[in-house]
């Protein structure tokens, strides 16, 4: 039994719609929305790409663990996590223990279309960003599924459709 089912944690790759869906879902359910990446930027005072440049991915992930653990203690949140949040066993356990975890899945081509012009995605500043998304999905999809209580196929639902689906499911599970 999870301690706090009044938190909703959205997981999935960059471009899956976690922030967009999270904002809409929080408004619909009367919960507080928080984006982990934005919270990290607010706490450090620098953009994510600068953290990656200075501290590397490992440094960023350590900061992410601290923010996730801190925020997960709150109640009434809809949290948009970073795409790599599931790479940490501590984060996976924290999310599972403290809320309802929703995996927003999407195929690599859709993720690419949504992220191709965003220079604030350090992991996609490579020669072939579509292949990078394929590689990330191959690595992370099993971990997203491991932590997820519910999976939404983003290729089949718009942001509004996803919010409707999650609202129904959340209120059904947690009346």
TrEMBL record:
Binding site for Mg(2+): 19
Name the record gives this protein: Shikimate kinase
UniProt: substrate binding residues: 37, 61, 83, 140
GO terms, molecular function: ATP binding; magnesium ion binding; shikimate kinase activity
Gene: aroK
Keywords: Amino-acid biosynthesis, Aromatic amino acid biosynthesis, ATP-binding, Cytoplasm, Kinase, Magnesium, Metal-binding, Nucleotide-binding, Transferase
Cellular compartment(s): Cytoplasm
Listed GO CC annotations: cytosol
């Amino acid at each position: 039994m999870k301690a706090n089912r009044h938190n909703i944690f959205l997981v999935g790759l960059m471009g899956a719609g976690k922030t967009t869906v999270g904002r809409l879902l929080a408004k619909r359910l009367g919960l507080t929305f928080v984006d982990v990446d934005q919270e990290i930027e607010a706490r450090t005072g620098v953009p994510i790409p600068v953290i990656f440049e200075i501290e590397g991915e490992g440094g960023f992930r350590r900061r992410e663990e601290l923010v996730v653990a801190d925020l997960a203690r709150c109640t009434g949140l809809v949290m948009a996590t970073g795409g790599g949040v599931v790479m940490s066993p501590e984060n996976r356990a924290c999310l599972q223990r403290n809320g309802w975890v929703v995996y927003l899945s999407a195929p690599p081509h859709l993720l690419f279309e949504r992220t191709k012009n965003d220079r604030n995605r350090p992991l996609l500043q490579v020669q072939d960003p579509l292949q990078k998304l394929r590689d990330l999905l191959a690595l992370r999809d099993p971990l997203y599924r491991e932590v997820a209580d519910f999976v939404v196929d983003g290729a089949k639902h718009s942001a509004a459709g996803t919010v409707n689906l999650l609202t129904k499911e959340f209120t059904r599970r947690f009346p």
